[in-house]
Amino acid sequence: MTSEMQATMTNETANPSRAGAGGPLGGLRIVEFAGIGPGPFAAMLLTDMGADVVRVDRPGAPERDKRDVTGRGRRNVTLDLKQQDGVETAWQLLDAADALIEGFRPGVMERLGLGPDAVLARNPRLVYGRVTGWGQSGPLAQAAGHDINYIALAGALGAIGPEEKPVPPLNLVGDYGGGALYLVVGMLAALIEAKRSGRGQVVDCAMCDGAASLLSIFFTLLARGQWEERRGSNLLDGGAPFYGTYQCADGGFIAVGALEPQFYETLRRLAGLEAPEFRERGDRKRWPELRQKMQAVFKTRTRAEWCAILEGSDACFAPVLGLTEASTHPHMAHRNSFVEVDGVLQPAPAPRFSRTPSAIRASSASAPAEILAHWRARRPGD
Predict the structure, then answer these.
(1) 3-state SS of the chain?
(2) Which in 31, 32, 154, 165 has the greatest CB count within 10 A?
(3) Residue 253 — φ and ψ, nearest 5°?
(4) Which is more confident, 31 or 365?
(5) Which pLDDT tens digit goes with each residue over 186-212?
(6) 331 belongs to the catalytic site
(7) Is a pLDDT exceeding 60 seen at residue 2?
(8) Residue 15 in this model has a pLDDT that exceeds 50
(9) Of 175, 204, 209, 237, which is the active-site residue?
C-alpha cells in the first residue's frame, strides 16, 4: 500500500464529517430495529463501510450516548410500533430500504405486523436480516439466553479455558463472531443475489450456528485424531508450552505462538531456552513440565525487557496489552487502529479499502420525512 493511500484512509477514518462521502457500501439503505448485542455491532460495521443505516428506537429509549461505540454512525428515529402512525412510518422506510436488521425473539416482528412475509410482499427485493441466539426454529428458539449459553451449546465454550473449568471468551465468539459477522456476511451475500434475481430473502443468523461454524478447524483436528476433548491439552488451547501466555517479573504477561519448528527455534535462541529438554517439544507428555520451566524463564525479566528481546522477531511474540495500552502500542498507533471521536477512544473501521475507504460517520437524530425524501430521490443504480 502506498503512503498516499494509507494517508487517505487515515484521514477518512478519523474525520466523521466526511463519512457520507464514500465507503464500498455507499448508497445501500438499511433499517435497523434497535436491540442489543450482535444487531447493533453488525449495523456499525455496515455503517462504517458506507451504508446509510437508520435505527428505529422505541419511545422512551435513552438519548444516544456518544460513548456507545457500537451505536455510532446511524441516523436515529423514534417510532411507536404499537401505534398505527408509527407502523406506517416504518412501512414507508422499509418500502424504500434495501435491507432490514432485527434481533428480537422469534415472532416479535410478526406480532408487530412487520414480519418477513408481510415486508417481502410489499418490497420483494428487500433482504431481511434476523439475528438471535438459538435461531428462528428449534426446541430452544423461544428461550432466553446470552452469548455464554449459545457458545456452550455449540461446543465452543467447553474447549476454552484451563482444565479446571471453561472460561467465557468475553462475548466475542457468540455475539460478535458467530452472530454479527455471520449476519453481515449473510446479508451481503443475499444483497448480491438480489441484484441478480430482483428478489430478497430472509437471513436467519443464529449465534449457536455461527459459533459452531467457527469451530470448523477443530472438527478437522478432531477427525484426524489431533484434538483431545480435554481443555489445556491441545495445540491451541494453552496445552502446548510454545503456544500460550506467561507471567513476567513485573506481573505483566506475554503471549508466545511459536507453532512452527523454525519459529520455536528462534524463540529458544532469543529467550535463552537452551536446556536439552526444550528440544522435546513434540512429546506431549512433557508439555506440563516444559510449560513450568518456560514460565520460570519468563519470570526472570519484565514484560518490557522481553519486548526488547523478542518483539519484531520470528519468535511469534507479543505483549498482552489492556484496552488502553493497545491503542498506544507503536504498531497499532502507526496503523491508526484506534481513533478518538468526540473524546471517546474506539476501534477504527475494519477492514481497510484502498479505493473506497470506510469512515466513522456522524450520528444524528433525524426526522423520518427527511430520510424518506432522500431515499426516494436516489436509489442504487439510478
Answers:
(1) CCHHHHHHHHHHHHCHHHHHHCCCCCCCEEEEECCCCHHHHHHHHHHHCCCEEEEEECCCCCCCCCCCHHHCCCEEEECCCCCHHHHHHHHHHHHHCCEEEECCCCCHHHHCCCCHHHHHHHCCCCEEEEEECCCCCCCCCCCCCCHHHHHHHHCCHHHCCCCCCCCCCCCHHHHHHHHHHHHHHHHHHHHHHHHHHCCCCEEEEEHHHHHHHHCHHHHHHHHCCCCCCCCCCCCCCCCCCCEEEEECCCCCEEEEECCCHHHHHHHHHHHCCCCHHHHCCCCHHHHHHHHHHHHHHHCCCCHHHHHHHHCCCCCCEEECCCHHHHHHCHHHHHCCCEEEECCEEEECCCCCCCCCCCCCCCCEECCHHHHHHHHHHCCCCC
(2) 32
(3) -125, 155
(4) 31
(5) 999 999 999 999 999 999 999 999 999
(6) no
(7) no
(8) no
(9) 175
Per the residue annotation, which of 146, 314, 329, 374 is the catalytic one? 146
State the helix-helix crossing angle for 303-310 and 261-271, rounded to 10 degrees: 120
C-alpha cell of residue 60: 422512551
Query: Is the pTM for the entire model greater than 0.85?
Result: yes
Report yes or no: 95 and 122 within 8 Å, Cβ to Cβ. yes
Neighbouring residues of 214: CB distance < 8 A, sequence distance ≥ 6: 156, 173, 177, 178
Active site residue 146: yes
Domains and CATH numbers, the chain: 3-214+334-377 (3.40.50.10540), 243-320 (3.30.1540.10)
Taking only the tens place, the pLDDT of each residue in 100-118 is: 999 999 999 999 999 999 9
